[in-house]
């Protein structure tokens, strides 16, 4: 093989593997191996494979986090040891990890997921990529008139902090009334910080945000810039909330499935029909996601599996 080709191949392989264990495998592996979310036998070969992958993903989470704590180091040791233990059962040909076969085992495990190519072809994986190119492509748009449901949602949202706010329909307006007008400028994307850009289109349209101290997820429908009653420009995100269908629950019949889902740092949810407004300041990350086919993983329709791109080692419980 040509030496230059070898170097290029190794470079692309090195670039791909973090992506595999950060996003591609966590977002697809459950669909491949889970037939019934309430019937995952931990000691079965299928259960051991899932646990093996989840532990490797946990290790990847920790080494790619922004800052590794003492607790993270302890967790890494636990997951890595269990990963080796389950590997002996899953990969029966691997007798001695000290012989240098550990790396070969990792490559073999990647090859086991050739089905990923088919799944990725059906439902492309969305990542936090090309953000700068998207930011540069922002176009200047004219003001539009908000639809009735959008205006009503924005009015209700703003009145939480400004109870005296009036609708433009509530005539006559009293003197010095704070009136919300129904015109806004739609934006294709919005740069929240140096490292965080959101958009109405893929790949940055799935977000993780904070609401009442809890972690929530949503799909962005529109980004609106408008003049608020104080005369200042304000930006708000109109989103479809995502209901988390499988939070951690040790008493649920699907507790083993939920544990694996949490270990993969993934959320399976349903995109809701109604829309709400979210402040850009509450957005903490974008998320990679796949839309699930109907009747997949006990979700009849509207299902989505997502993984926040937040550099945290664990999925937050709240």
Structural summary, described in words:
- With 318 residues, the chain is α+β, with helices and mostly antiparallel strands.
- Helix content is 37%, strand content 24%.
- The protein has 8 helices and 13 strands.
- The chain has helices at residues 3-33, 45-63, 70-90, 101-111, 115-122, 131-136, 148-159, 255-263; strands at 144-145, 166-167, 179-180, 183-187, 189-193, 196-199, 206-211, 214-227, 233-244, 267-271, 276-278, 283-291, 303-308.
- The strands form 3 sheets. Strands 7-8-9-10-13-12 form a 6-stranded antiparallel β-barrel. The protein has a two-stranded parallel ribbon with strand order 2-3. Strands 5-6 form a two-stranded antiparallel ribbon.
- A hairpin with a 5-residue loop joins β8 and β9.
- The radius of gyration is 23 Å and the shape is elongated.
- The relative contact order is 0.14.
